[in-house]
Design a protein that fits this description.
- The chain has 132 residues and is α/β, with parallel strands linked by helices.
- It has helices spanning 13-25, 36-45, 63-72, 74-79, 89-102, 114-131, and strands at 5-9, 29-33, 50-55, 80-86, 106-109.
- It has one domain (5-131): Rossmann fold (3-Layer(aba) Sandwich).
- It has six helices and five strands, in the order βαβαβααβαβα.
- α3 (63-72) packs parallel to α5 (89-102).
- The chain is globular, with a radius of gyration of 13 Å.
């Protein structure tokens, strides 16, 4: 079983670097972006399926904007699986609740529990592998 590629889209540098380090230590190939526009470009450019750890509050193009793009683009939906992260999970549900339910998006509260995060990434990885 191959290990999924993970894309971390997070504007806080300490959180982004920690996530990238933890995921790389777990054997994942990790790419990252520090804003929504660069994250979107990575998602659209990648032919490889990815688990995407997406911060909801990003400068410019928000995590909600990226999630809506994913929901409405069949090509991106087939390739990537999202895990949303935010310090305010209530705000995520209020802004994107229908998309989260329809697409079975996992939401993780910050500060995140490392074990919960690892388990969410593994579940998403298995979904990607089952879909391919």
């Amino acid at each position: 079983m191959s290990v999924a590629k993970v894309c971390v889209i997070e504007d806080d540098s300490a959180t982004r670097e920690t996530l990238c380090f933890l995921l790389a230590e777990a054997g994942y190939e990790v790419i990252s972006a520090d804003n929504g526009s660069d994250g979107r470009a990575l998602l659209e450019a990648s032919d490889a399926p990815m688990v995407v750890l997406l911060d909801f509050w990003l400068p410019g193009l928000s995590g909600g904007d990226i999630l809506n793009l994913w929901v409405n683009d069949g090509s991106l939906r087939k390739r990537h699986i999202f895990i949303l992260m935010s310090g305010s999970t209530q705000a995520i549900v209020e802004a994107c609740g229908e998309a989260i339910s329809a697409m079975s998006v996992h939401v993780i509260a910050k500060p995140f529990d490392v074990d919960e995060l690892a388990q969410a990434v593994r579940r998403a990885e298995h979904k990607l592998q089952s879909a391919s």
